[in-house]
Amino acid sequence: MNSPAAGPPAGRILLAGGEPKIRFLIGSALAAAGYVTDSTGTGTEGLRRPLKCHYDLIILDLMMLDLDGQDVLERILSARSGQAVMALSWLGGHVAARVDCPERGARDCPAKPSSLTEPLARARNKAHPPSQVIKAGQLSLDAGRLATDTGHGPVPLTRLEFLLLRELAGHVGQPVSKGELLATVWGYDFDPGTNVVGVCIRRLRSKLGFDLIKTVRGEGYQLAASYQSRRKALGPTGPPP
Description:
The protein is α/β, with parallel strands linked by helices. The protein has helices at 20-32, 43-52, 69-79, 95-104, 117-127, 159-169, 178-186, 196-208, 230-234; strands spanning 11-16, 35-40, 57-61, 85-88, 133-136, 139-142, 147-149, 154-156, 213-216, 220-223. It is elongated.
């Protein structure tokens, strides 16, 4: 365990998996920034420790000798559904893993960084997500709670659902292309050949109403300026049996 800098700790972070040198460098930088860090090289310990201790963030390297990293991620989030996890993948590789991990529940899945600036910035954001409410017409987005409200009560969202809806909310009445959404939400400057955008759109429509997000043929997706919520249309008794 690394000792935190003087003053109250900024948060407790677990570093699991990957090369010892990388864990040491990231752990040292986090400790200097005021975080208490625990470190383990195995997926077995990576699974055990979150059950014994609260962590504000788990930085999980997908490369492990004893277990499959994505399986470890899924099992951690199955045991602790609200746990913040940042999964690291090889720089320039594991494209499928970077797409798949957020769908499994990871808050982030960046490529393995070439410097310590990125994990530090991401750690501050993941361990202490900002409390901010964004308004777009009758739609409100609560960044602190990862929830939205269309006027009929808060609806919890996954991180990706929230980020995608926030991006569309910034362009009300205007279409946003799939490429733009992949770049801003998933962090890609190319199409990884997966339909993650369409899957996320379908989930949002299912939760918030099918009139909320329109498909603009040849241009992308657009948040409607006004719409009738599915929840409102169904009424208080819900869908018919």
